[in-house]
Design brief:
The complex is a heterodimer of chains A (about 180) and B (about 725). Chain A is an alpha+beta fold and about 180 residues long. Chain A contains four helices and nine strands, in the order αββαββββαββαβ. Classes of the chains: A alpha+beta (about 180), B alpha+beta (about 725).
């Protein structure tokens, strides 16, 4: 089902234009009691998103990190999951894009959108807590995906956004086996 | 009459239903307000309401399908339900559609009214004004920072940090930082002690500042988000400095409080307005969607509630229709449950009372009908077993009823003429013409009782009918018709005749036979005494005369003996008789030399009959003798014997035909009377004796007048069961 939705979303996105999100690289490294996430994500906003952003509509990008274990005949078992929300907003008077990492409550400003998106795409050593002593089992794998969080849009936009390829921007999941 | 369990009150049910429907609708409506906490749940509320709408749509669809099926099956109450549903939907939809249309229009116009060219221009101007004011301020800060950079260029590296603090304090900057060209920190000085890390610029800013420096506003006062504090705008200035190697001096200046507040107000207002401009179409769509969904769900809930209400309202009507259909089909025991205490409940209760009374009346009518049927069956049984024929006429003198005896006596099939006028009797049986005319005359003459003896011709000869008539009067004295009673008294009349003849024969034998012997003796003595005294001629005359006297006396004696025999036939001695054998034995006495030829046709399955064989031989002898005497040789006689069923009983029918001259029609009725003969010789008692013997056997004999080739006698004798020596049948 999930795969079907992804395929559908990917198809609609592909048909709609040359934009979308793509996780190019990701890695989880254990640092004590936390897992440190590093990832390179390529963001390419659709003109609709750029126009909305320039009109002051804040956009939230949600990065989902999951550790799963395959199961025969069923969908994979989800062992651990974290969501990282990054909000981007344009300030017309300062003419800058403000990017806020809601997980770590950090923020930065960028005079250009591409700079902001490039900064957003570089996740370095983001600490994600795991239960004490928890270790992923054998055959577990991790996956990272990113998408525009439609539920964070103004309420009036949501019904349309759910049915518009220009708004429904979801990357394919980047998967890799967990070793060590 | 006990009322059934009352159902959940309809109004409460409908109120609960609307409450369930209205709560998510209200929440969804509240979520459309920007400041509402429910804003974040808008999608879920929208989804819940859509699902609720689909659920209601399914329920309404199921109800419509139910109604259509009921209507196609022409179920009781379905038409009323359909009309009520259509009426309700029309009455509900029409104002709702009108309200929706104008609300839709109003909504779109209201949203459009938020935006105006003048407001656009004002917003743009205010933003430009703010930019201009800030630009002026930023240019001044740029120049000031250049001077700080020039000052810092001259400061030795060892005291650069101290100088940095001094310059920050002197310039009023919130933060001064020396950065490498790659953005790494060389030295920093901050006004606040809480900030550990300086607010670093992005690489793109470093690139921009590399040649002429950079100045710009920054909404992020620090690397960390401070939720509670009002962040305010900062002016970020980057100036390239040479030092030992190329670097940047970054200065962050806070804006004056008033300017900062005004600028941010303008920026927020502008951003909000731009956001609204962008959301204009979306707002219209979402508000319309919300409005349409609220209307749709409300309407579907109302229609569903209408279906529930209508089904409840129609249920008693449906029951009443089914009840009346059951009553129409004769089921008066039908009772309907009283489900409501309203007018419909009263109507159902009244229906139950009505059917109970109808059932009571039906039972009474059934009892009366059974009594009438019993009476009728009794009368039919009595009439059916009466020997008298009973015929009833209605007010228009049409034939109404007749019993079996009437059909037998009048020799008509009543079923063919029932309901027809009285003259139909004569049409079916022309012999009854005189009877019909006589009856009509009596009916016209009086309403009272009348009686007449009427002779009619039947297939078996003349019948003497004693006919009595009487008017049938209703309870109010009105004439309803007439009843006619017939009695076939032919046998009685015949018996009276036989008795008279027998008496006459007995007297004749007694009065005549006694003087005959003295007359004969006297004549013989006279001849004996006188014969010697008279001459030859006289002797011849005397002898002739005395011989004549003796012969005539002998003839008279024979005649008297015959009469005596007729008057005193011996008592019957019935015994099982095989008629075939008996007939063969009789016919054997008449050889062909006697000028007679017999044709015999006897049913081989003919059972034996209880009869007196001697008397039956006499019957056959008399009939054969009658045929021989009446016809000229050669006489051909055909005898047929068979078994027939008459009035439900077995009979033996013997038919004897000859080829003689037959019987003249005017004499046909008298040939069985004594001393009636057309022959030159004989006593005329042969056929009378035959009839007497047959009647003593319980049978009948008649002359078939339809036979034209001679005489045909038809004898019918009841076939009584054999009785053995112990008297068992």
């Amino acid at each position: 089902m999930r795969l079907l939705l992804i395929l559908l979303g990917w198809t609609l996105t592909a048909l709609a234009g040359d934009y979308g999100f793509r996780v190019e690289r990701a890695d989880l490294v254990r640092r004590g009691d936390v897992l440190a996430l590093s990832a390179a994500i390529h963001y390419r906003f659709s003109p609709t998103l750029v126009r909305a952003l320039r009109h002051g509509v804040p956009l939230t990008l949600t990065v989902e990190v999951r550790i799963l274990r395959p199961r025969r005949g069923l969908w994979d078992e989800r062992l651990w999951q974290r969501r990282l929300n990054f909000r981007i907003q344009y300030y017309p008077l300062a003419r800058v894009y403000r990017v806020i990492d809601e997980t770590n409550h950090s923020q930065r400003s960028f005079p250009r959108l591409d700079a902001a998106l490039a900064a957003l795409g570089q996740l370095q050593e983001i600490a994600l807590p795991v239960p004490e002593g928890w270790r992923p089992p054998a055959r577990a794998y991790a996956e990272v995906s990113v998408g525009l969080n439609i539920e964070r849009l103004p309420w009036a936009l949501r019904p349309l956004a759910y049915f518009s390829p220009a708004w429904r921007l979801i990357s394919e999941s980047y998967r890799w086996p967990l070793t060590g | 009459m006990a009322a059934h369990r009352m159902r959940f009150p309809l109004t409460v049910l409908v109120s609960i239903l609307f409450g369930i429907v209205l709560i998510p609708l209200h929440l969804m409506s509240s979520a459309t307000q920007a400041a509402s906490e429910l804003n974040r749940w808008y999608t879920w509320l929208l989804l819940i309401n859509v699902l609720g709408g689909l659920l209601l749509l399914g329920l309404v669809g199921a109800n419509i399908w139910w109604l259509v099926r009921q209507f196609r099956k022409r179920a009781a109450g379905s038409r009323l339900a359909l009309k009520m549903v259509l009426l309700f939907v029309f009455l509900a939809l029409t104002p709702a559609a009108i309200v929706f249309y104008y609300s839709f229009q109003f909504l779109h116009r209201s949203i459009d009214s938020w935006f105006d060219v003048e407001i656009d221009r004002a917003m743009e101007s205010s933003l430009e004004l703010s930019k201009a004011a800030l630009d002026q301020r930023m240019q001044a800060l740029l120049r000031q920072t250049r001077r700080l950079a020039e000052t810092l260029d001259k400061v030795p590296e060892e005291v650069r940090i101290i100088e940095l603090d001094r310059l920050r304090e002197r310039s009023g900057a919130a933060e001064l930082t020396l950065l490498t060209q790659q953005g790494r920190i060389i030295a920093t000085s901050s006004a606040g002690s809480e900030l550990i890390l300086p607010n670093l610029p992005d690489v793109s800013i470093l690139t921009l500042a590399r040649r002429y420096g950079y100045v710009g506003l920054d909404p992020t006062p620090g690397p960390m988000v401070e939720d509670s504090a009002d962040p305010g705008l900062r002016v970020r200035v980057l100036i390239p400095v040479k030092l030992e190697r190329p670097a940047f001096l970054q200065a962050l200046y806070p804006l004056p409080r008033r300017l900062d507040r005004l600028s941010r107000t303008v920026e927020q207002a502008y951003a909000h307005y731009q956001q609204m401009v962008y959301l204009r179409r979306s707002l219209k769509f979402s508000f319309s969607l919300t409005l349409a969904l609220i209307l749709l769900v409300s309407m579907l809930a109302a229609i569903w509630a209408a279906f529930i209400s209508i089904r409840r309202i129609v249920a008693p009507v449906k029951m009443l229709v089914q009840g009346t259909q059951a009553v129409a089909q004769g089921n008066l025991d039908k009772r309907l449950p009283v489900l409501q205490k309203d007018d419909m409940g009263f109507l159902v209760s009244s229906f139950n009372t009505m059917t109970a009374r109808l059932a009571q009346a039906r039972d009474e009518a059934e009892r009366s009908r059974r009594e009438v049927e019993d009476q009728r069956a009794y009368l039919e049984t009595v009439l059916g077993h009466l020997s008298s024929g009973v015929l009833t006429l209605n007010q228009q003198t049409r034939l109404k009823t007749a019993n079996q005896a009437a059909e037998y006596i009048l020799e008509v099939d009543f079923q063919k003429i029932q309901g027809r006028p009285l003259r139909a009797l004569a049409e079916q049986n022309p012999e009854l013409d005189r009877l019909v005319r006589s009856i009509r005359a009596h009916l016209l003459e009086s309403d009272g009782t009348w009686q007449e003896e009427i002779t009619v011709n039947g297939r078996q000869g003349q019948k003497v009918l004693l006919c009595r008539g009487s008017s049938l009067l209703g309870a109010d004295g009105r004439r309803l018709g007439a009843v006619l009673v017939f009695d076939d008294i032919t046998a009685l009349v015949q018996a009276q005749k036989h008795a008279a003849w027998s008496e006459m024969a007995r007297r004749l034998a007694h009065e005549i036979k006694n003087p005959l012997t003295p007359i004969q003796l006297a004549a013989e003595r006279l001849e004996h005494k006188l014969k010697p005294r008279v001459d030859e001629g006289g002797a011849v005359v005397l002898e002739r005369s005395t011989r004549t006297i003796v012969q005539q006396v002998e003839a008279l004696k024979a005649m008297v003996n015959a009469f005596s025999e007729y008057a005193r036939l011996p008592k019957l001695k019935p015994q099982p008789v095989d008629l075939g054998i008996l007939i063969d034995e009789v016919l054997a006495l008449y050889p062909p030399t006697m000028g007679v030829e017999f044709v015999l046709d006897v049913d081989p399955d003919l059972p034996r009959a209880m009869a007196d064989p001697l008397r039956l031989r006499q019957v056959l002898h008399n009939l054969i003798k009658n045929a021989l005497e009446a016809g000229a040789p050669p006489v051909r006689i055909r005898i047929a014997v068979r078994c027939i069923q008459t009035r439900g009983h077995p009979w033996v029918e013997l038919v004897m035909e000859d080829n003689g001259p037959g019987v003249a029609p005017e004499r046909a009725e008298q040939i069985f009377d004594p001393y009636v003969t057309s022959k030159s010789k004989g006593t005329g008692l042969g056929l009378a004796i035959v009839r007497k013997i047959i009647e003593e056997h319980g049978g009948s004999i008649h002359l078939d007048r339809s036979y034209r080739n001679g005489a045909r006698f038809v004898i019918q004798v009841p076939l009584k069961p054999e009785i053995d020596e112990q008297g068992h049948e």
